[in-house]
Amino acid sequence: MNWHAIKAIYRTEMARMMRTVVQSIVAPVLSTSLYFVIFGAAIGSRITEIDGVSYGAFIVPGLIMLSIMTESISNSSFAIYFPKFSGTIFELLSAPISYIEVVLGYVGAAATKSVIIGGIILTTASFFVDINIVHPFLMFLFLILISVSFSLFGFILGVWADGWEKLTIVPILVIMPLTFLGGTFYSISMLPQTWQTVSLFNPIVYLISGFRWSFYENADVAVGLSLSMVILFLAACLGVVWWIFKTGYRLRA
Amino acid sequence: MQPVISIRELTKTYAGGFEALKAVDLDINKGEIFGLLGPNGAGKTTLINIVCGIVTKTSGSVTVNGYDNVTDFRQTRSRIGLVPQELPTETFETPYNVCRFSRGLFGKPPNPDHIEKVLKSISLWNKKDEKILMLSGGMKRRVLIAKALAHEPEILFLDEPTAGVDVELRQDMWNVIQSLRETGVTVILTTHYIEEAEQLADRVGVINHGEVIVVEEKTKLMRELGKKELVLHLAEPIDTLPVGLGDYRLELGADGSELTYHYDTKGEHTGITALLGALHEAGIRFNDLHTSQSSLEEIFVGLVKKGA
Ligand SMILES: Nc1ncnc2c1ncn2[C@@H]1O[C@H](COP(=O)(O)OP(=O)(O)O)[C@@H](O)[C@H]1O
Ligand SMILES: [Mg+2]
Q: What residues flank ligand 1, with Cβ below 6 Å?
């Protein structure tokens, strides 16, 4: 294991993010506040409570998920796509590192940033509503596992994408709809039966549900199932990254 | 001597079906400066990139210090530094930071003294904290050289290092190469500027259409494949060659005041004595003469033409 390489990648990636610190911190604070104003105030005045939780507090886990998923994907996909695009990837390919170092470095940095952003959103939200977290340890575990999985997913996306359009289209066309339809702003149980069934095919439902359970102990699906889904997704992404480096897919001619 | 790099029956067929390397065999000796010469598209970059791990081989084997470059890639890659042909550089980083990054990436613990030494040797020290984006093309190449040296490689690949490079940088680069050689670093440079190989390389390999045509010590190559020529400056210009000299394939130049005779040092007899006798008989006097050996360039052009 090449620890110096992991440190070098992680440090450089964190520094890159720090250069855009304003946009990485201000953006989530601003968007969270906006969500609260729009959803919390406008909708919250009509839906007061869901399963005994005030609507404002109910949407907090979903908002955090929404941000860390999109942030994880965009950070790590960009981190690997840009060197590919500019040609600096030659150095990674010629370095004595395997997928382990690359994943720990790039994905580790992207996930770190996501976790930090999750914390920022949680703090921002606490200015608007009362939040009590019933299972803080589980909450943190979900936060980390989901940040890591989606950073891995973003990494795969960045390797796969051969143009800027593809890089942006997947988050917009796939992840955003699935997240919005995944119960960020509502409970699945509020939907008609057919749509409840359809929703169960949306993997993000499981993530948001499990994460919300760690806050308020109310969930659309059993928390054990949620955790299993997260781990399954994580394992699948790891498998794909391992395969990418084994075969050199879209990295080595 | 045990070669530091051993390439055996290496082939590469790119995804499109193009056969860029056809069973290449090549040994690089420890501590030598090896010049890989070949016209554009010959397969030089492909060969280097396979050794470094950037391109996957189709078949054959590459070993570095006895380690296979695929199964033992950590052993082989940590020993190698590469200055690529293109100039891909990080834009928002500084030369100092990218060097520190490269060193770490190749598994070496931090060493600010070494990075300072490298940056100074390539005249980048005073630019170490500027954004690479703001540097000129020549400076970017310096950054790439510094990056390649940041992890103290035992083997350095320079892919077309002087393509489009100013005199000053070329000089810096040659100085760096010389001092690396003194510390026992093996240097492999590809070029289609023969002058470079001629000045720097100990051995030269010529590659064309994905095949290594010849590998030889530079001096030997020049001696063996090189033609020599004898130029005679005539005392009085002549219009045409006297009939008796027809067998010598002489060239009459410089308004009839210069005669050039080509001969082969390897040949049984050079024919010089006979020629001089014939000239004397024909009554042609000369007041000066000199001989010269053909440059590597002429040899190279000859070889590549023959192979085409
Ligand atoms: N990624 C690639 N895909 C397909 N063909 C390639 C690729 N890279 C290089 N080639 C082809 O392989 C041949 C050798 O290229 P290269 O090794 O770059 O030559 P050189 O460095 O000697 O100029 C060229 O004909 C080039 O077009
Ligand atoms: Mg080339």
A: A 253; B 14, 16, 18, 20, 38, 40-46
Judged by CB atoms closer than 8 Å, whether chains meet at A5 and B105 is answered as yes
> Does residue A82 lie within any of the structural domains?
yes
- Indicate yes or no: CB of A96 within 8 angstroms of CB of B93: no
Name residues 100-129 of chain A within 8 A of B (Cβ).
none
Q: At what angle do helices A3-19 and A108-126 cross, to 10 degrees?
A: 40
**Of residues A11, A88, A248, nearest to B88 (C-beta):** A88
Identify whether A252 is part of a domain.
Answer: no
Each residue's pLDDT tens digit, A199-237: 889 989 999 999 999 999 988 888 999 999 999 999 999
pLDDT on residue A97: 94
What secondary structure, in 3-state letters, does chain B show? Answer: CCEEEEEEEEEEECCCCCEEEEEEEEEEECCCEEEEECCCCCCHHHHHHHHHCCCCCCEEEEEECCEECCCCHHHHHCCEEEECCCCCCCCCCCHHHHHHHHHHHCCCCCCHHHHHHHHHHCCCHHHCCCCHHHCCHHHHHHHHHHHHHCCCCCEEEEECCCCCCCHHHHHHHHHHHHHHHHCCCEEEEEECCHHHHHHHCCEEEEEECCEEEEEEEHHHHHHHHCCEEEEEEECCCCCCCCHHHHHHCCEEECCCCEEEEEECCCCCCCCHHHHHHHHHHHCCCEEEEEEEECCHHHHHHHHHHHHC
Least trusted range by pLDDT, from A99-113, A132-146, A175-189, A218-232: A175-189
- Residue B274 Cα, ligand 1 centroid: separation in angstroms? 50
Q: Which residues of B touch A100 (CB under 8 A)?
A: none
Query: What range does the domain containing A117 cover?
Result: 3-247
In a mutational test of the pocket of ligand 1, which residue from B11, B12, B18, B24 has the highest number of ligand atoms less than 8 Å from its CB?
Answer: B18
- For residue A112, tell me if it sits in a domain: yes
Give the least confident one: A131-145, A181-195, B22-36, B216-230.
B216-230
Nearby residues of A228 by Cβ (< 8 Å), 6 or more positions away: none
Going along chain B from its start, the domains and CATH numbers come out as: 5-221 (3.40.50.300), 226-294 (3.30.70)
**Within an 8 Å CB–CB cutoff, is residue A97 touching chain B?**
yes
Question: Could you tell which of B13, B19, B45 is best to mutate to test the pocket of ligand 1, judged by most ligand atoms within 8 Å of the CB?
Answer: B45
CB-based contact A93 B15, cutoff 8 Å? no
Cβ contact B90–A96 (<8 Å):
no
Chain B closest-CA separation from residue A92 CA (Å): 8
CA atoms of B239 and B257, how far apart (whole Å): 9
pLDDT one-digit tens code per residue, B39-89? 889 999 999 999 999 999 999 999 999 999 999 999 999 999 999 998 787
Classify residue A198: in a domain, yes or no.
Answer: yes
Give the count of domains, chain A: 1
Nearest bound ligand to the CA of residue B46 = 1
Q: Are the beta carbons of A5 and B75 separated by less than 8 Å?
A: no
Chain A residues in contact with B159 (beta carbon < 8 A):
none
